[in-house]
Write a structure and sequence with these properties.
270 residues, alpha/beta, Nucleotidyltransferase, domain 5, 5 strands
Length: 270
């Protein structure tokens, strides 16, 4: 995964039982996946004691590329010469969507309309080659973004500081460079929805398993969940995959362990 030019990252809270006092505290499950348009399909969950940005920095190590993420401050220290911040248009859209729901704002409606047109282009280029995707984005998305940026600046001059509308406008304006990087690089996605979809099963499941019994237990669960979700992403039945792998492990050579990873796995024919 760390050989990929693009990664998506996100995190979600999980309860962990603290040793000694039998009480739980908020730990976090971080999720990382290759870019939407990368050939490798998989996800790695990393269970950590907190939401501190050091966990992301430890996972990424000396990796370099485009990191698609939300505006959480924990990622900020990673950005620099090696790692480029790629913003999430879905988060920018959500600010205007919430604004429109709360007061039927005409400004929010106009922003949603233009952003909706950007997503229409993305549906058009989703399955195209990188060259074609880049060409169409440059032809269709770039003019839309230029118009949106000009419009955002104009509206911001007319809106009072501190209002909900000002905050929605500022969210996009302050992150404009990161939000629009996808137009200049066909390898990038317009948003971070790809990794958010990989976190959704965790958010649903934690209502059933309630908490991890320890840090080590959480890490073990993260490893198993990484294999299960990655198996799904590669079109495998997770039960069939795990059953086959567990049956083969005792006699499988360690030097060939990569053969059992979800993106390489082929069922053993008996």
């Amino acid at each position: 995964m760390l050989k990929s030019a693009v990664l998506h990252a996100d995190e979600t809270p999980m309860a962990m039982l603290k040793p000694g006092n039998k009480k739980t505290h908020r730990a976090y499950l971080w999720a990382y996946a290759p870019g939407t348009f990368e050939d490798l399909k998989g996800v790695v969950y990393d269970f950590c004691e907190s939401r501190a940005g050091e966990h992301a920095r430890t996972f990424l190590g000396d990796w370099s590329g485009g990191l698609v993420c939300d505006d959480f401050s924990g990622y900020k220290a990673s950005f620099g010469a090696a790692i480029t911040e790629v913003g999430c248009m879905a988060h920018a859209r959500r600010k205007f969507f919430d604004l429109h729901v709360s007061n039927k704002s005409e400004i929010a409606q106009q922003a949603l309309t233009i952003i909706g047109q950007l997503y229409e282009v993305e549906r058009e280029v989703k399955h195209l080659s990188a060259d074609e995707r880049g060409r169409i984005r440059n032809e269709k998305s770039k003019p839309l973004l230029d118009a949106l940026h000009h419009w955002l600046l104009l509206q911001r001059q007319r809106v009072t500081d501190g209002t909900a509308t000002a905050k929605a406008l500022d969210y996009s304006l302050k992150r404009w460079v990161a939000l629009t990087r996808f137009v200049g690089d066909a390898r990038l996605a317009i948003d971070n929805n790809w990794i958010e979809n990989q976190i959704r099963p965790i958010a649903i499941g934690r209502g059933n398993w309630l908490f991890a019994g320890s840090l080590r237990a959480g890490q073990r669960a993260a490893a198993v969940m990484s294999l299960i979700q990655s198996a799904k992403l590669n079109g495998h039945d997770p039960y069939a995959y795990l059953k086959d792998v567990l049956a083969r492990l005792p006699t499988h050579k360690n030097s060939r362990i990569d053969e059992l990873l979800p993106h390489n796995w082929t069922p053993l024919i008996t």
